[in-house]
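Same chain as my last thread, 223 residues:
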Amino acid sequence: MQQFIRYPLESIPFVVISLLIAFTVHEFAHAFVAYKFGDHTAQKQGRLTLNPIAHLDPIGTLLIFIAGFGWARPVPVNRFYFKNPRLAGILVSIAGPISNLLVALIAIILFYLLATLGVFSSLSGIALEAVEQFFNILISLNIMLFVFNLLPFPPLDGYRIIEDLMPGNIRAKMTQYESYGVILFLFLVITPIGDRTISPFLSNGIYLVQETLFNLIRPLFGF
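reply #2:
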């Protein structure tokens, strides 16, 4: 079984908890920003909530364990309710990835705060290892979702941002061929080609973002 799972079996509980936090915060952020701009569609469909069950997507969740990246169930957005559809659309789209980046940042700060307060020194070896493993997974998983969702493929947030930046005529053409983009994206995800395209981008992006955050926070706590 281990050969089919991206994470060690002993890490699965931490992955599940981190996944529930990451996906829930991500989709809630989309729904919340859309609500603030006047679109109550997500709220009416029960998506303006921190209940993880409302946001999980079976395939996207499964891919987290198999491929190391995935997605939640997209929040419905109706641009008709936005006074400035282009600006609101961009802010709604980017809210998800930014929320994951903030979760990672908060987790890093909390980790160093606990270390500074001496909490870790009072833990046994097994407990300390478990806590460190949880923080590592929580941070890396949220950074992964931040980077992954900025990829310019539908239905990811990066594609939506580019779509809203385009003139109306180009946007119409993008919408027309969007289904082909989804097929291309899934092809890259589930075939070995992804190991030479998406995976290197994700690995390098995750490493860069993670190192940047740690380098920003470490000096604040004297590490």
